Amino acid sequence: MENDLADLFLKAAKRIRRHQVERLAPLGLTPAQSRALRVIVGTEGPLRMTDLARRLDIVPRSATTLVDALEADGLVTREPDPANRRSLLVRPTGEGLAVRARIAGTRREAAREVLSPLSDEQRETLRDLLTVIDAAAERDRPGRHGGPHRHSGPRPHDQAERS
């Protein structure tokens, strides 16, 4: 039963991702860029690149690649961190804020389409179940609460942040 459930879950996730990719294509964004922009816009004030990587649960180099693309499209800017010259801060531009608003509408449309077969009660049940699964996965994830992280030992960017 667990295998069937896992297969159904993964199939649904792939379908949702496919909808998201299709909806984001006219905006010229990938799902990863969309997620990065969502985090940047959702942060009050500028965000350190290392903090962005941490929030996205990606390595700093991958965050740099995402921000490079967003900056090239005029959606974010980078500037030196006055508190730490080795760090960069990223913030949304006016265009980035506008695109983020369009992304939010696109996500709502895609969710409505994918979830349309479900009743309101079923959607609420699904939300509750996914919240429980997500909380358990976050709690059990390596690197949380002193557990081992996928990166062993201190990373150079972490040392720079502590200095």
Automatic annotation (TrEMBL):
Signal peptide bounds: none
Single annotated GO MF: DNA-binding transcription factor activity
Pfam families, alphabetized: MarR_2 (PF12802)
Tree of life domain: Bacteria
Composition bias type Basic residues, residue spans: 144-154
Domain HTH marR-type: 2-135
Region (Disordered): 135-163
GO BP term, example: response to stress
Descriptive protein name: MarR family transcriptional regulator
